[in-house]
Q: What sequence folds into this?
């Protein structure tokens, strides 16, 4: 049975540092290499920022729970919240080549998560929102 | 997370950021740079040498700031990016829209040579 790492914090921006420390500690303890550890903490930071800013609208309405484990060669992180669901398919991809004047602000968070992780899956139901992200072969 | 602000000749301001530029810290940088711009100080160097991580929110703050600085006939230049932070800028396609210098001195000289 692989070891599971769990953390629950209030959905506030000042807790992002605590979340990052937790993910880095878990990733390092599970033997992820330095690059993978950095990428995983970044994907989690972006995901939790989205929860706080968009699902909870920075209104301190709920908690964020994280669980991670290393199993079958993959580092798996699941993030739970009870904020507003959103449709990730409705988020347009960022334009990475336009001029400065035309460069739109935002829309990079989800793009980063998908670039950094091998799997990004959302599930929304009456129990809440669940985001699963997987990093493969990262030791 | 902000530790130092220096002002050079011609009103060039250097802001040194440190630590993690996540969404919480980015709001501090946003307020700091916004106050400079409100004072008409629109030649800004942001030294990211002490920054270990920048999130999309931090990038958005810099994007808004460079647009405002250039709109005021100034500019916003970056310097001293670590390889990890430079990778994030590259992933975001930001290396083509920000002047990025190896050292603070080079960034400041970039303003001076432009007159």
A:
């Amino acid at each position: 049975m692989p070891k599971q790492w769990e953390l629950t914090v209030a959905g506030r921006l000042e807790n992002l540092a605590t979340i990052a420390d937790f993910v880095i500690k878990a990733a390092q303890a599970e033997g992820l290499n330095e690059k993978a550890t950095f990428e995983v903490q970044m994907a989690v930071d972006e995901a939790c920022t989205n929860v706080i800013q968009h699902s909870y609208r920075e209104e301190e309405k709920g908690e964020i729970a994280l669980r991670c484990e290393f199993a079958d060669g993959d580092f798996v992180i699941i993030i739970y919240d009870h904020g507003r669901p959103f449709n990730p398919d409705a988020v347009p991809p960022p334009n990475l080549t336009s001029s400065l004047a035309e460069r739109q602000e935002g829309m990079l968070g989800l793009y980063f998560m998908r670039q950094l992780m091998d799997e990004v899956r959302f599930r929304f139901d009456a129990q809440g929102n669940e985001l699963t992200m997987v990093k493969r072969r990262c030791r | 997370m902000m530790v130092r602000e220096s002002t050079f000749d011609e009103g060039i301001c250097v802001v040194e950021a440190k630590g993690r530029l996540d969404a919480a810290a980015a709001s501090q940088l946003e307020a700091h740079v916004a106050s400079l711009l409100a004072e008409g100080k629109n030649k800004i160097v942001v030294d990211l040498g002490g920054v270990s991580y920048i999130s999309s929110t931090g990038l958005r703050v810099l994007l808004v700031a460079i647009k405002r600085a250039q709109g005021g006939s100034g500019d916003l230049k970056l310097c001293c990016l670590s390889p990890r932070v430079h990778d994030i800028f590259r992933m975001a396609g930001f290396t083509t829209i920000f002047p990025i210098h190896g050292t603070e001195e080079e960034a400041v000289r970039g303003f001076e040579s432009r007159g």
Remarks:
- The interface with chain B takes residues 13-14, 16-17, 20, 38, 41-42, 45-46, 49, 52-53, 94-97, 99-101, 103, 105-106, 108-109, 112, 115 of chain A (CB under 8 Å).
- The mean pLDDT of chain A is 93.
- Residues 27 and 37 of chain A are 6 Å apart (CA to CA).
